[in-house]
Every structure is written in structure tokens, then in C-alpha cells.
Amino acid sequence: MKQALAILRFLRDCAKRGERAALVTLTDVTGSAARAPGEHMAVAESGRSLGSFSGGCVEAAVIAEAQEVLAEGRARHVRYGDGSRYIDIRLPCGGGIDLLFTPAADRQQIDCAIAVLERREPLTLRLTLVGDMTAARSDEDDRTQWHDTAFIVRHEPVLRLVVMGHGAEPAAMLDIARAYGAEVVLLSPQNLLVEDAREKGMPAELLRFVGRVEGLMVDPWTAVITLFHDHDWETPLLLQVLEQRPFFVGAMGSMRTHLERQRRLLDAGADTGDIARVTGPVGLIKATRDPQTLALSIMAQVVQAYGLETASDHPSSARWSMSHPHGFIEQHARSDPGGGALQSSTIFDVDQTLTADARFDRKEEEAHAQRI
User: Fold this and answer.
1) 8 A C-beta contact, residue 236 and residue 189
2) Are the CB atoms for 281 and 252 separated by under 8 Å?
């Protein structure tokens, strides 16, 4: 859930003010629904709230029910929509949702949950039908589901985006990533871009020379995007990133630029399997000509990859094999006929690939090109 940390902080802030608040959790869905099990709302006794379950269809009723739960001091498990005792509350999609109301969750457990997510570790909440809540770092096999009479909710750390580059593209990328709600970090040799990012409250570091960056740390919930026009900056930074485990690495440029990027990484000693993890040209829209469209295209691809990475049934063996819409730029430059992500651990003969790429006519090359 994207808002889990914000909702937990809402509960903590209410507790600090001495105001009681309820955590409301979606446990089950029948038919169609706007949200998936594991989503939350937080409702203060004043009626203030954060989060939603239906885009406005049941929120007023949920707030009223939460206030009753807080006044009574007892947990409730309530159905809305199809099969509910509330015949006047219906979901437009025709489905039904079950909500677990947990009044005044333990402050220590709220603080523990916040600390886990702020350390960028996965969080598991255990919510019982009698109103107890416990928080802990997730085990490998924890999933959002019922376990006996307790509902288990797993939350991943917030998506983080490390943007590297200079020019108009990084500026557009920062704006759309922040609007989405991702954590954003900028690395750029452009002083004005760094200053502007800092004024907007985003961490930013000025790159003073081509090379590795001290303290650059990424985790499995981080995506790295390089947006350089001067590609000399890329190679040492990509090498440093590929030594770690971001869930997605993407780079701007044309197909031909990406082939040259692969060659540089190979010459610098990068493992061929790691090179295959770099998606290029990055973005779902393949012929972008302005920074804003490119940023939207990249953000959509990153969010799609994050959804696959954090899905409960996503196999870990496929974790690092993300493909570009046109396929990895390898021997055949094509996608998997079965429709899945193309698995790869090697980069084939770069000269052979370059020869094949050279057979594309000018229109094909232009169609694949992005801003370099």
C-alpha cells in the first residue's frame, strides 16, 4: 500500500495530541472493488481521516462507523456493499468489502511500525478481531492474508527513485515522481538543478567529477534512472549501482546509444548478467520528444516494475530480469513470445548485435530514438 507510512504517522500524530484514532483495514473483497485487501484508512474521533476504500462511495459511512467504534472501544468487522446489513450503502461496481476497525492501536506498536518502514524494511502488521495490533519486520514468506483469527498485512517500503543526470529531463522526472508520492534523490553535475531540488525539499548531491559517488546506497525498493546527455558520467555510476540490488535500472538514449552503453560497461568489467538489467531506451512510450512525456513514460514503467516486484506471488528468481517494451537489446532484440518478462543472463556479441541493428532503416532508427 502506497500510503501505509503516511497513515501510521497520522495515527501517531493523533496520539501525540491526545486524540483517539482508529485504523480501518480492508480484509476481504467480493466481486469488483476499487482497492485490494491490506489497504487502510485512519479515522480520528474528530472525523478527520486519511486514505480511502472506494473513491468516495463508502468513506462517509466508514468515518461514522469508526467514530462509533472509538466511542465504544471495541473492534468491529463490518461488510459494505453486496451482502451488507447496510442496504442503503452500495458500491457502484456491485461488489462487497469487509473492513476491520481497530480502535486506538497501541502507541508502541505504531512507533515500531513506523520505524520499520523508515528503515526501508518490509513491515508486517498482525490485526486481531478483538482489536489487538502488533508490528514487526516481515519474514520472507509473510503475505497479506488471514491466519486463523488474525489478519496479516504486509507493507513494502515506499518506492524510491534515484535520478541521475542534467538538463530538462531530470527536472521533469523529479516533478512527476514527487507528484506520484515516491521518495526522490537527485545526483547531478548541474548546480542550478541541485539547488532547485533542495529548495523543494528533495535530497540532492552535486557531482563534481566523473566517477563513483561516496555513500550511494540503493535497496530492492529503489529504481535508478540515468538521464545524461554526456554519457561519460554514466559508466562509473551504473557500475556502482549494479553492484547493489535496485529493482529497476533505466537509462535514456537511443537504441544505438544503449548498445554503446553496454559496450562501455563490458569494457569496464561489468558482469554480462548485470548489464542485461539496464533497461534502455527507458520508458513505455518509445518515441518521446519532450522532457515531460519522457518523465511520464519512465514513471509509468517504474511503477509497473515496482508492482511486479512487490506482488505477493512474484517469483524472486525473476526479480532482476526486467525487459524493455522492445525487448532486451541482445542477439534478437525481441520480447518473449509467451508475453512474460524476457529472462537473460548474458549479453551476446556486441559487434554482432550492432551489425543487426545497423540493418534497420533510418525511419526505424528514428522511431526508436529518444533524446540522447
Assistant:
1) no
2) yes
